[in-house]
Amino acid sequence: MAVADANYRISLLDIGAPGRHSDGGIFNASEIGKRLQNGMLSIPPPRPMENGQALPFVLVGDEAFPLMQYMLRPYPRSGRLNRRKNIFNYRLSRARRVVENVFGILSARMRIFRKPLIASISTATRVIKATTCLHNFIISEELKLPHTQRRYMTLNAHERQLRSTGLEDAGTFNRNRPTKSSTQIRDDFATFFETTSAVPWQWEKVLQNNF
Q: Which superkingdom heads the taxonomic lineage of this protein's source (predicted)?
């Protein structure tokens, strides 16, 4: 399990969850999940936005993740969503593509991930740690260069897809009932995306349901 930043670098990495546990709550049982829940990751305090409202730093996930104070997930599509909620889901999907593209970049640049990794647990762990460190180092160095001079993470990096690699989706995590504060945080972000932080193209995307 990995957490990535906006520059495709892996910020947090948890290796070794046994297989797919659709009901096992992999995220909550992981070291990342435990430290987040216990407030042990030194997350910065909420920061005031352009409209003056302070919003917290959060992780973004898809429907498989629980909605928590530090984790945003989309509004359920089971019911009819209003424009504000659809805009939120669109903006969240754009942010989620970053971590999806991280694995695409890794598999494209680190050939060992282009097929299932056949190795002992200890060897596989070392391979993942080594390639992650190398991935982060190269990106950090390339960020100092103009886009035209970057070779590892090119301009079309956002178009990379996770296809036919040895990397798998972790499945569905335990969905705890969201707290009132977590739902309010999501609503606050939804309002922010619809008003102060609106981008010109989001209206057409939402109208066409093209996300």
A: Eukaryota
